[in-house]
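Worked example 3 (structure in, sequence out).
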């Protein structure tokens, strides 16, 4: 009886697991596909009305107007076609349920751990990842969190069997959390609330500088004792990796960029950049791009403009800084699906709609170094795109009918859409 009970329990577990399994990844594109009649938003600021877009073997082979069709034809008259949205600095696939610690794998023990690779922890069967596709988010930079140097990110596509299949660009960059020159008072230790100078700021910078110096020396010397942390930093000095520095303050950003450049780091990107509008000339001089913090948030300080977070990307763009949007912050994994609507919010701040689209497609691809393949609808690039019934930047009209990743027709069904249909059937039937 005990054995039968165990078998029955196992069957229930297996049945439950199957019922909640991921959508099966789409098979490789088998025939040419033509999308006709849609308004094509290229992702570089341009638009093609009544377009014809042809792709085969996962690549766009033709795009324009009045082009001959090939293979399967999708009539998208009155609809819109966009390049797949790219989510930078994301913990998608590294965490599932915030309240259940065993499902969170976005941080490791240690302070300077650049050798930690987020890619091998990426869970392709995450239901959070699955829920991105119906809003057009098809690519993401999977990024570790915590510590001074968090680890190494990688870029993935969001429809795969495993992390090896998902990988688009492996170990693209290292993420560093720059020290703050001010910190909040620790009220639980009896300190006054509010900000006060961080007396350890100079020492914290010295620690970072020393680590960079040692890592550079390691990369230039043969027959060193094996040091995985220093080994993983080599790409920063030969240009094969980018250094993503998470910093918000004016002083912090200047100190961070200056320190990195002094040590020979060639490619630096600022993540967050809350006060970046104050140092646009410095950023342009040093060729620094900014992955701007989430626009749907509140000002940091009492004397900030109430709408500073809303208009920050436009301020930087107007000043000539390369900008892309990210959703980092509280509830980041779930908020990532709203990237298109963050871009739409910028239109309300006066930004041209096609420029706003660039901040989640073409610009993001350039900053992440994948613009040779992704980010825009151009001949020769990946057929990673989606068709929407309306404006993708408007949550009222962004209703996807198709999505393709490398030409594969991916499913738009998720656990959430299944629940929606289930309960709509229930209440509409009454």
């Amino acid at each position: 009886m005990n054995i039968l009970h165990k078998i029955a329990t196992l069957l229930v577990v297996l049945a439950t697991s199957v019922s909640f399994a991921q959508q099966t990844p789409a098979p490789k594109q088998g025939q040419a596909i033509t999308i006709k009649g849609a308004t094509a938003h290229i992702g570089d600021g341009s638009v093609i009305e009544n377009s014809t877009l042809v792709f085969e073997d996962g690549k766009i082979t033709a795009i324009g107007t009045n082009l001959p069709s090939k293979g399967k034809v999708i009539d998208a008259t009155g609809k819109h076609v966009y390049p797949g949205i790219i989510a930078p600095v994301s913990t998608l696939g590294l965490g599932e349920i915030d309240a259940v610690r065993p499902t969170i794998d976005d941080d490791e023990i240690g302070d300077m751990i650049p050798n930690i690779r987020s890619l091998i922890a990426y869970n392709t069967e995450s239901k959070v990842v699955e829920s991105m596709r119906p809003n057009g988010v098809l690519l993401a930079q999977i990024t570790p969190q915590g510590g001074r140097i968090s680890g190494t990110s990688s870029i993935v596509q969001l429809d795969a069997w495993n992390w090896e299949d998902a990988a688009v660009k492996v170990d693209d960059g290292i993420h560093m959390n720059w020290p703050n020159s001010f910190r909040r008072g620790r009220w639980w230790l009896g300190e006054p609330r509010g900000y006060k100078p961080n007396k350890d700021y100079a020492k914290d910078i010295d620690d970072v500088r020393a680590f960079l110096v040692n890592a550079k020396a390691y990369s230039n010397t043969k027959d060193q004792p094996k040091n995985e942390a220093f080994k993983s930093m080599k790409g920063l000095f030969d240009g094969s990796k980018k250094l993503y520095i998470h910093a918000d303050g004016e002083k912090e950003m200047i100190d961070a960029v200056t320190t990195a450049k002094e040590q020979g780091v060639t490619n630096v990107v600022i993540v967050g950049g809350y006060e970046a509008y104050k140092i646009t000339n410095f950023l342009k001089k040093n060729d620094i791009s900014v992955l701007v913090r989430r626009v749907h948030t509140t000002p940091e300080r009492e004397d900030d403009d109430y709408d500073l977070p809303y208009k920050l990307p436009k301020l930087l763009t107007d000043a000539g800084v390369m900008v892309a949007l990210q959703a980092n912050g509280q509830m980041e994994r779930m908020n990532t699906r709203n990237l298109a609507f963050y871009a739409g919010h910028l239109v309300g701040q006066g930004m041209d709609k096609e420029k706003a689209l660039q901040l989640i497609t073409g610009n993001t691809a350039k900053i992440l170094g994948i613009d040779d393949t992704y980010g825009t609808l151009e001949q020769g690039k990946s057929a990673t795109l989606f068709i929407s019934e309306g404006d993708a930047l408007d949550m009222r009209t962004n209703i996807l009918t198709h999505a393709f990743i490398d030409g594969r027709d991916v499913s738009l069904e998720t656990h959430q859409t299944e629940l929606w249909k289930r309960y709509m059937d229930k209440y509409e039937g009454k």
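Notes: Residues 8-20 have pLDDT under 50 and may be disordered. The CA atoms of residues 218 and 294 lie 37 Å apart.
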